[in-house]
DNA sequence: ATGCCCGTTCCACGCTGTGGGACATTCCCG
DNA sequence: CGGGAATGTCCCACAGCGTGGAACGGGCAT
C-alpha cells in the first residue's frame, strides 16, 4: 500500500476514496482514465475501477464509450447548483448585481469566503471587449482580491490569523501584500472606508472595488465587486465604482435582513415575481 | 423510496449509500437531520451518522453547529460548476442568450437532454414582473417543454421510444401530449418547421419557443428557448420568438462548429449511436 | 418530572471491500 | 508487421472494515 494519509481520524475508507477520485478532476483535467486516477490517488487499478463503476451507476461520473475515460456527470452539477441556489444571498443579490452592471458595464462578482479562499457564486460578464477571465464556482486567494480583502477585513482577528497561517500570503504581483502586519493594517483601512480596492495585487492589469454584504446578525456573509481593466480607470471612476458596490451591498444587506423573518423551508420567492410553480417532475 | 435495489448488480455499498444520502437533499429540503436521512434512505441512524461524518470531512456536507442538521457543502458546488463550465456549448451560447434577452426581455434558457429529461444549464431571467420559476441545474420533463420536445425530435426513433418507455408521458395540463404516436407526429412537425412550441403543456400559463443547437457532427447537443406568459402573447410575438431562437441556435451551432478546430486533445468520437444508455456498466 | 426523540458513541460480528493476478485489447515503437 | 508495454476489465480468497444494535446523554414538548 502507498503512503496515503495516516488514516488518523477514520472515516469510511471507500467513501473517502470515492470523493478523492471525484476531486481529482479539475478544469485542467476534465477527463481521466482509470490508471491516471489510480496514480493520482495512490490506489490499485482494480480498486479505482470498482469505485468508478459505482460512481458511474450513480451518474456522478460518466465514461466515454470510445476513449474509456471518465468525466464528471450532470447529477453533480445538479447537486452543486442546489448548494448555490439555496444560498439566499445569491437570490437576493442578483437584481442588484444587474443594476450595477447596467450602471457601469463592467464585470460584477458575488463571492463568499470559504476555508480562507474566495468562491465566486455569481457573476455578470463585462460587456466590454477586454474581460477578466473567471468562472462561477472557482476559487481565488483572499489576500489579494477585492472580494477577499473586504471579507477578511470583517473576520475576527483570530480567524484572520488562522487564514494567514493556513493559506499564506503568496505573492502574485509586485503589488501583492505579503506581510501579515501590512495586511492587518490594510484591513483596518478597509473597515474604516467601507470598501476594498484591489489595484493589481492579484493580476497586474486588473483593478477591483468590493464591499461587504451583511446578514441580519451583522455578520459579513458575502461581498460584491466590480472588476475592471486598470488602464481604463482614473480617480473619478474608481470612486464611482466604490460608491456603486457600497450602495448595492447595503441594499442587498437590507434584503437579507428583511427576508430572514419569513425564511423557512422551500422558498417560492415570497417577494417579487409571480411564481408559476416550481415544476417538480414526478419521481 | 422503500425497497432499495436488490443489491443485484453490486457496487460498493458504502459509496452507493453516501451518494443516496447526498441525493436526498433537494431544493425543497436543503437541510436534513441524521434521522430524516436515515428514514429517507432506509438506513440505521448510526450508519447514516458515520457516512455523514465522512462526507463532512470531505466538505461535501456541512453540519450546522446549532441545529445539528446537515446541508450540502461548497466543494460539491465547485465540482458541479466544473461540469458545466467544461461544457463548451454553454460558453459559446452565453453571448447569444444575452442577445435574445436584449431583443425580447423574456426568460431565456439553455438546456440539454440527459437520461430523457431536460437539464437547464444556463438561464437569463426575465426583466418582466411576472416570471416563470426555474433554476439552473434543475430538471424538467422533456415531452411537455419546448426545450425537451425540440431535443426529443432530434433523437433516433429507438432512443425516443426508450425515453417514452422509461419516463412515460405524464399529464401536467389539459394540453400535455400523452400519446406516444401523437408525440412522434409532433416531433416530425418540429423537425419540419425547425422549432418547437410549448403552449401550456407543462404549466397552463406558460408558453415557450425553442430551437436545437447542433455540434460539428450535426448532432443536436442542446437547445435554446424563450419562455413567456401566455396571456402576453399573440400570433405575431410567437412568430417573433420562434424566429429569435432559430437565429440564435444557428449562430451557436456555427460557433460550435468553428471552435471545434481548436478543440485540443481527444477530439474524435465521430460515431457513437447516441443511445441514452441505461447506465448499466458492462457486466 | 416524564416521556419522547434526537445526535452521538461503542463494540463484536461477519459481510464486503480489497488488491493481486490473469486476461483481452489497444497503442506505440522498433 | 510483430512484439512489448501500456491499458481496461474481470475474478477470487482473505481479513479488514463497515455494519447496526444497544446504550448514553441532552433537549424539548407534554
From TrEMBL, chains A, B:
Region (Disordered): 260-283
SUPFAM superfamilies membership: GAF domain-like (SSF55781), Winged helix' DNA-binding domain (SSF46785)
Entry-linked InterPro entries: GAF-like_dom_sf, HTH_MetabolicPath_Reg, Tscrpt_reg_IclR_C, Tscrpt_reg_IclR_N, WH-like_DNA-bd_sf, WH_DNA-bd_sf
Record SMART domains: HTH_ICLR
GO biological process, one term: negative regulation of DNA-templated transcription
Limits of the HTH iclR-type domain: 12-74
Gene Ontology terms, MF aspect: DNA binding; DNA-binding transcription factor activity
Top-level taxon of origin: Bacteria
Ranges of residues in domain IclR-ED: 75-258
Keywords for the protein's UniProt record, in alphabetical order: DNA-binding, Transcription, Transcription regulation
Chain's role: May be an activator protein for the gylABX operon.
The name this protein goes by in its record: Glycerol operon regulatory protein
Species annotation: Candidatus Segetimicrobium genomatis
Taxon lineage: Bacteria, Bacillati, Candidatus Sysuimicrobiota, Candidatus Sysuimicrobiia, Candidatus Sysuimicrobiales
Amino acid at each position: 500500500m502507498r503512503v496515503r494519509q495516516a488514516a488518523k481520524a477514520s472515516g469510511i475508507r471507500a467513501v473517502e476514496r470515492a470523493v478523492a477520485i471525484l476531486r481529482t478532476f479539475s478544469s485542467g483535467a476534465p477527463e481521466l482514465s482509470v490508471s491516471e486516477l489510480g496514480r493520482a490517488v495512490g490506489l490499485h487499478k482494480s480498486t479505482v475501477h470498482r469505485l468508478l463503476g459505482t460512481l458511474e451507476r450513480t451518474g456522478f461520473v460518466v465514461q466515454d464509450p470510445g476513449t474509456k475515460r471518465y468525466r464528471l456527470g450532470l447529477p453533480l452539477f445538479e447537486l452543486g447548483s442546489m448548494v448555490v441556489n439555496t444560498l439566499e444571498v445569491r437570490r437576493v443579490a442578483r437584481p442588484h448585481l444587474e443594476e450595477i452592471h447596467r450602471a457601469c458595464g463592467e464585470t460584477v462578482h458575488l463571492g463568499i469566503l470559504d476555508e480562507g479562499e474566495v468562491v465566486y457564486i455569481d457573476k455578470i460578464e463585462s460587456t466590454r471587449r477586454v474581460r477578466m477571465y473567471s468562472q462561477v464556482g472557482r476559487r481565488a486567494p483572499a489576500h489579494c482580491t477585492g472580494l477577499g480583502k473586504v471579507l477578511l477585513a470583517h473576520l475576527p482577528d483570530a480567524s484572520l490569523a488562522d487564514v494567514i497561517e493556513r493559506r499564506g500570503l503568496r505573492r502574485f504581483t509586485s503589488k501583492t501584500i505579503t506581510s501579515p502586519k501590512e495586511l492587518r493594517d490594510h484591513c483596518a483601512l478597509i473597515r474604516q472606508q467601507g470598501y476594498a480596492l484591489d489595484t493589481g495585487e492579484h493580476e497586474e492589469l486588473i483593478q477591483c472595488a468590493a464591499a461587504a454584504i451583511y446578514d441580519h446578525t451583522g455578520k459579513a456573509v458575502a461581498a460584491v465587486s466590480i472588476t475592471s481593466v486598470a488602464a481604463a480607470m482614473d480617480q473619478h471612476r474608481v470612486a464611482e465604482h466604490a460608491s456603486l458596490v457600497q450602495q448595492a451591498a447595503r441594499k442587498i444587506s437590507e434584503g437579507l435582513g428583511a427576508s430572514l423573518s419569513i425564511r423557512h423551508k422551500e422558498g417560492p420567492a415570497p417577494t417579487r415575481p409571480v411564481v408559476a410553480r416550481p415544476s417538480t417532475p414526478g419521481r
